[in-house]
Amino acid sequence: MPSEQSVFVKLDGEESELIFLNIPNPKTELEKIPPPDAFVVMYSVIDKASFQRAEQYLAYLRDQDLGKPVILVGNKVDLARSRVVPYSDGKDKACRYRAKFIEVSVGIKHNVDELLVGILKQIRLKIDQGQLENQSGGNTASEGGGHWYNKSGVVVRASMKAKQMLNSLFRREDSKFKNCEDLHVL
């Protein structure tokens, strides 16, 4: 059974409660709980094995294609002399798996507020994105497809997977790293 903690976060004048479930084995336990609004995958920068487990979880979440925000968090940055996972490795992994990235120290509360606000912002952005995509405005869904057609039969929205694929094909190589650390954009 996952353990639960909650915290209240105020963003843009609106207070929200974030409820965190500590799920020791996401591969087996995610199916037993209601789907969360976001995933926070945390590892210790002083423990290479925890970083490797985090990568496995990122791969699992990507393969599940749940359409939820994913944030990779490197913890214990205050223990700089014991660090074995460089900042760049964490950022690279997050970008590779289309996750956001931040490093924190829960022990000394470094970047913790930024993380909490960032989680809430990612959830709200994803909800807003979903609401925009679900507004039909006179469009009808095609039979069996994932596309939306206007009244003259022209495709106005491709499936999310196709859009992501085209975006990744046509953007510059280094642009995929640009927004990886910005928790205020999707």
TrEMBL record:
Q: Which SMART domains match?
A: RAB (SM00175), RAS (SM00173)
For this record, the Gene Ontology CC terms, alphabetical, are:
plasma membrane
Alphabetized, the UniProt keywords read: Phosphoprotein
Answer yes or no on keyword Phosphoprotein: yes
Q: Which domain of life is it from?
A: Eukaryota
Which SUPFAM superfamilies does this chain map to?
Answer: P-loop containing nucleoside triphosphate hydrolases
The molecular function terms in GO held by this entry are: calcium channel regulator activity; GTP binding; GTPase activity
UniProt similarity note:
Belongs to the small GTPase superfamily. RGK family.
Q: Please identify the protein, giving its name as recorded.
A: Uncharacterized protein
- Species source reads Vespula germanica (German yellow jacket)
